Amino acid sequence: MGKKSFLKGAAILGIAGLLTQVLGAVFRIPLANIIGTDGMAYYSAAYTIYIFLLVFSTNGAPAAISKMTSERIVLGKYREAHRVFQFSFLFMTAFGLAAFAVVFFGAGLISDAMHNPGAYYALLAIAPALLLVPVMSVYRGYFQGMQEMLPTAVSQISEQGIRVVSGLLLAVMLLPRGLEFAAAGAASGGSIGPVIGVIALMLIYFRFRKRILQNLSEDTHIERESAGSILKTLAMIAIPITIGVSIQPIMNLGDTLLVMGRLQSAAGYSAEEAENLFGALTGFAVPVTNVPMALALSMALAIVPTIAAAKSIGDREGLESNIRLGFRTAMIIGIPCSFGLMCLAEPVMRLLFPLQIEGAVTSSRCLFLLSIGIVFLCVAQTMAGILQGIGKVSLAVWGIAAGFAVKCAATYVLSGISALNVSGAAIATLLGYVTIALVNYIAVRKSTGVKNDFVLAVVKPLIAGIVMSAGVLVIYRLCMPLLGNSIATLLSVGAGACIYGSVLLKSKGITAEEIETLPKGRMLAALLRKGKLI
Description:
By secondary structure, this protein is an all-alpha fold. It folds into 2 domains: 3-452, no CATH class; 453-534, no CATH class. It is 86% helix and 0% strand. The two termini are 26 Å apart.
């Protein structure tokens, strides 16, 4: 359960997260070009509520189940680990039914409360997904607790693939009936995709069934936890974990609840103008930040069972090394994502939304501001995972509570200023991320006593990020007049990745040993040695 387990698991979930976000972009980009900012305002409002209700299922429950499972497996208590899986299945099924009822039967009240009645049909369409996603979370958490990240990856990709295809088809088919129905058609994909995800996980479970049964037969422990004790522990762990690792959805909820109202009541915009601005923020800019967010969440989910297992058996060395590695990885991933999107905010938006140039320009200002916060989001998310792994889940809740309070207060003030409008909401999100990162980092430091090497973890990635940014800007400005925005942007992104990786390797910001722990890491390390990069 050492360094190798964490990096390999995080890499698998990270790759799956990237592919899932690419598929999500394949979905959102043509969807935004088809239905525009008004339609995206309807879709995004419904999707934000859906995500908020599912953060327990998608983030909290899998992390809690993986933590409880790994703690038992590392001690050889396979029967208790499997009972966690069984009782979690019942609990999450009941949770799914309750969430479905809230959204489906309360769609009218919810859409009115958001000052966005056009989201009504989209809420109805996405409600059935709330029945299936909780079931997926149980399988994913159980496999993650076994240090098997591939099942989660397979289910994520298969679910998202079906969601993209079905959502786009239904959006196009329903567009003649109006933007409200087109948004509902897009939301329907979110209800169809999980059907495939559940089927994939069930098939994988049956493939693992022989191994599971063998482990159960070899378990000699006779003590048994009661069903009530397991469910109580699950709830006590999952609820604060849900809050702790669901930073971005909770921040987005603040925008959904406040921005439309403030734009109209304080900033003086009409309902139509407010919808356009809100759609530019939530339908254009925020989804672009989902890619680094997926990487940050992958690290948090992968590190929870690793930290929990090390703590359970008193492996202090493994605990400390993984905490340091988690912080370094957050910086290594967060810095290039922040710097890269800051440098290319408008070119990226023009590349992704060529049919909605006005919305792309408006959203690029928001993307620039949100990009600054990405590195803080990565740190906040990873630190939250560490706190959950060591059993300090309540501290992660305090972190996000502080960040959410800052976010809401700043959003209320700044989005009500006409000159700032939705850029004010983006600034508020940045301030929220900074707050959570600082609170969570201090909590980890005080709880574990682990000190980080700031030259290795911060300074070297920062230098690589600055060199990368200079290279990206030069390459874009040279290529843009000759090749146009799209090709110039893609070339700049590719060159930036190469520059950042090269500087990081040359400065020993990442070692050959760490590279070898990644999937296909030995092959990659050999290639880098041939190129004299390590």
